[in-house]
Amino acid sequence: MVQIIFDSKTGNVQRFVNKTDFQLIRKVDEIEDLDTPFVLVTYTTNFGQVPASTQAFLEKNAHLLQGVAASGNKIWGENFAKSADTISKQYQVPVLLKFELSGTAKDVELFTQEVEKVVTKPSAKMDSVK
């Protein structure tokens, strides 16, 4: 079973993950020790940056990261949900989805499909966790 870890500032990301059917959903600031793979859903702050709270969490737990999704606002153009791109590049994981604000029903459906692909796909990263 995959767990979804999220970081939310305004509530948009939390509203998004709450629309999913995943059973194990936890917030970054509620986690002490993590020992199982996870998918991260976060937001983008300032002009396309990864939130400090997300970055701090990843510094301890990135070895278990399987994929990332991010919320943003399309008015920011090329910086829309850019934190997903930054995390993907930094930790060599796929961007599963970029969604606006708290996402649509279609976004939730696409995210669920992408998470299922990541979870069922054999991964070198998963092998290194064992």
Task: Give me the secondary-structure topology.
Layout: E1 3-6, H1 12-19, E2 24-27, E3 38-43, H2 52-61, E4 65-72, H3 82-91, E5 95-100, H4 105-120, H5 124-129
Parallel strand pairs: 1-2, 1-3, 3-4, 4-5
Please give a structural write-up.
The protein has 130 residues and is α/β, with parallel strands linked by helices. The protein is 38% helix and 22% strand. The chain is globular, with a radius of gyration of 13 Å. InterPro entries: Flavoprotein-like_sf, RNR_Ib_NrdI_bac, RNR_NrdI. GO terms for molecular function: FMN binding.
Notable traits:
130 residues; alpha/beta; five-stranded parallel sheet; 5 helices; 5 strands; 22% strand; disordered C terminus
Average of the residue pLDDT scores = 90
Helix and strand pattern: EHEEHEHEHH
Distance between the termini: 15 Å
Radius of gyration: 13 Å
Strand content: 15-25%
**Neighbour order of strands in the largest sheet:** 2-1-3-4-5
Largest sheet: 5 strands, parallel
What would the principal axes of the Cα set say about the shape? globular
Number of helices: 5
Organism: Bacillus amyloliquefaciens
Family: Belongs to the NrdI family.
GO molecular function, one term: FMN binding
Protein name: Protein NrdI
